[in-house]
Specification:
By secondary structure, this protein is α+β, with helices and mostly antiparallel strands. It has one domain: Sufe protein. Chain: A. 55% of the residues lie in helices and 16% in strands. It has 6 helices and 3 strands, in the order ααβββαααα. It has a 3-stranded antiparallel sheet with strand order 1-2-3, covered by helices on one side. Strand 1 and strand 2 form a beta hairpin. The longest helix is centred in the first third of the chain and has 25 residues. The protein is elongated. The structure holds FE2/S2 (inorganic) cluster (FES). FE2/S2 (inorganic) cluster (FES) binds next to helix 3 and helix 6.
C-alpha cells in the first residue's frame, strides 16, 4: 500500500516538474513569479472608484483605486482577474507601475510598457496586458465622469 502511495507521490512530483519546465520555457521568471504570487491582489474596502472590463478572450479584470482627490494621485491600487496566469502577471505589473502615479501618468502606461517589465510574453498572450490597460483606462474614465 505504502509503495503505491510512494509511486503516486513520485508521479505527481514528476508531473509538476514537467509543468514547471514547460512554463519556464514559455514565460519569463517575472511572469511566473507574479502570476503565482501576485502583489496587490484582491478587492479593496471603500475604493474611490472601481470597475471591471470584459476582454475579447472572455476574461475579466477589475481594479480598485484609492485616489488622493486633491492631487489626483493613485495612492493605492488592487486588482482581481478570472483570466490566465499572464493576465494575473499583467494586472499585477500594472498596479506596481501605477501606484503613487498621477492619473495622467497612469493613463500613459501602454501594454508594451508592461511587456517590457515582464521581460518575455509570447505573442499568443499580448492581449493580456491590453486587458489590464483597457481596464485601468475604463476605471479612470469612470472616475473623471463622476467628477463632472
Ligand atoms: Fe484572457 Fe489572458 S487569455 S487575459
Amino acid at each position: 500500500m505504502n509503495n503505491l502511495n510512494d509511486q503516486f507521490e513520485e508521479f505527481v512530483k514528476n508531473l509538476q516538474k514537467e509543468i514547471d519546465d514547460e512554463e519556464s520555457k514559455t514565460f519569463s521568471k517575472r511572469v511566473i513569479e507574479l502570476s503565482h504570487n501576485p502583489k496587490n491582489w484582491g478587492k479593496m474596502e471603500n475604493p474611490t472608484v472601481e470597475d471591471k472590463f470584459l476582454g475579447p478572450c472572455g476574461d475579466t479584470m477589475q481594479f480598485f483605486l484609492k485616489i488622493n482627490e486633491k492631487d489626483n494621485v493613485i495612492e493605492k491600487i488592487t486588482f482581481i482577474t478570472d483570466g490566465c496566469g499572464p493576465s494575473v502577471a499583467s494586472g499585477c505589473q500594472l498596479t506596481i507601475m501605477a501606484q503613487n502615479k498621477s492619473i495622467e501618468e497612469a493613463l500613459r502606461i501602454t501594454p508594451d510598457d508592461i511587456i517590457k517589465e515582464l521581460k518575455k510574453l509570447p505573442s499568443s498572450h499580448t492581449h493580456c496586458p491590453l486587458l489590464a490597460v483597457n481596464t485601468l483606462n475604463k476605471v479612470l474614465k469612470k472616475y473623471f465622469e463622476s467628477k463632472k
